């Protein structure tokens, strides 16, 4: 059942930033070109059984060669901004050595093409593609990586800073910590459970140092893209509410509190973190110009299942040793990925952020929101976007200061461990030919944005 999306959307502010998002590893391909080094995901996807369809991102959507076509699509869509990521291994192929000018050349061309098309470039410095040479030495588990990341941030700002006016440091450090280092579903495929926590602290510190590096180059409008969603306890029992609280702490507060309050949400947890944590927090908590939220769905969480059974977490088997277990959310439509579609939870999330962080919360931008469905006549995606934009407007009407909204994603692309089996694009990709075909949602969004401008 597709809810009716024919009523015009409520009016958003005239200067609201409307955009779409993508990332390097998921789109660029051309992994051996222009002097690019190898990334953690290049190596991970070569390991048998790690990617659902046995695929990899060697070609992806060939965006590296077809970026002009993609920029033309952005223009046709009427996007005000494009959020892309810079591949660290393109810019610093071995992670800690010389800067590869040819790698930066690509982003230079992309930024110029976007500006010519009237689209604001919004680069993300890191969207999970750690240089393999650093990953092999421990990646984000090691403090040394943080300094290399700051040097890389400086190199990008030195090259693009004259034309880029809005920046994102990291994408979803929570997901990389949990999925990459905690349970091994993503690169680098480590299963450290709670021993993954140093990767969280080091990413946050890397964010702080990157903010300093960017500002030293005169950059403005710096934010981060953190994944967040409401956690709903499976029941009112003490076991379930306690488990849900721990999950919420790890996925939401662990990554937002240090940035917005300058402290970790729990002292016992902070005691597990490496290095001079109090000093680091001063770097991590430098005021942000805006806060980016990636929202997909709420999560229902309860106590671990009896008998030590693994829990299914959107196709991921979570190890039974974890002290919480995600549970099914019934009663809502589901995306092709199986995630529940709950627009009201976006309102709930934004209100909970305003309540928890108050004046410490800078203006918010939704840096990702979207859904996977097959097909070009994607009426379910239209309903999804329509519902979430209304939910966003409701939060704004209640006083949450939201300045922009980015759809994930411009085109179908490499969906990490799902390979090419999940399609998030407004534009369909026929992978054998790389032919791009705008979906029904593309036309719907173009018209909705046009109506907002009119
Ligand atoms: C983002 O991560 C990434 O930034 C982006 O690269 C990616 O392509 C995009 O989203 C789509 O996946 O089993 O129902 O509880 C998404 C973060 C965290 C969202 C896990 C879904 C579990 C769903 N995801 N969450 S469920």
Helix count, per DSSP? Answer: 15
SSE pattern, N- to C-terminal:
EHHHEHHEHHEHHEEHHHEEEEEHEHEEEH
Strand order of the largest sheet: 1-2-3-4-5-7-12-13
Low-confidence stretches: none
Radius of gyration: 21 Å
Proportion of helical residues: 25-40%
Shape: globular
- Approximately what portion of the residues adopt beta-strand conformation? 5-15%
How many β-strands, per DSSP?
Answer: 15
Secondary-structure class: alpha/beta
Q: What is the averaged pLDDT score? A: 96
Describe the biggest sheet? Answer: 8 strands, parallel, barrel
List the helices and strands and how they pair.
Blueprint: E1 17-21, H1 24-27, H2 40-46, H3 63-77, E2 81-85, H4 88-91, H5 101-116, E3 120-126, H6 132-135, H7 144-160, E4 167-171, H8 173-182, H9 197-216, E5 222-227, E6 231-233, H10 238-261, H11 267-270, H12 277-284, E7 291-294, E8 299-302, E9 311-313, E10 316-318, E11 325-327, H13 344-357, E12 364-368, H14 379-397, E13 402-408, E14 427-430, E15 435-438, H15 440-453
Parallel strand pairs: 1-2, 1-13, 2-3, 3-4, 4-5, 5-7, 6-8, 7-12, 12-13
Antiparallel strand pairs: 8-11, 9-10, 14-15
Helix pairs in contact: 3-5, 7-9, 8-9, 9-12, 13-14, 14-15
The structure holds ligand GBH.
Ligand GBH binds next to loops.
Structure description:
It is globular, with a radius of gyration of 21 Å. The relative contact order is 0.14. It is an alpha/beta fold and 454 residues long. The two termini are 31 Å apart. The protein is 40% helix and 15% strand. Helix 7 (144-160) packs parallel to helix 9 (197-216), helix 8 (173-182) packs antiparallel against helix 9 (197-216) and helix 14 packs parallel to helix 15. It has 15 helices and 15 strands. The chain binds ligand GBH. Ligand GBH binds at residues 23, 171-172, 175, 227, 294, 296-297, 299, 313-314, 326, 339, 368, 408, 415, 424. Residues 23, 171-172, 175, 227, 294, 296-297, 299, 313-314, 326, 339, 368, 408, 415, 424 line the site of ligand GBH. Keywords: Carbohydrate metabolism, Cellulose degradation, Glycosidase, Hydrolase, Polysaccharide degradation. It catalyses: Hydrolysis of terminal, non-reducing beta-D-glucosyl residues with release of beta-D-glucose. Substrate binds at residues 26, 127, 171, 296, 408, 415-416.
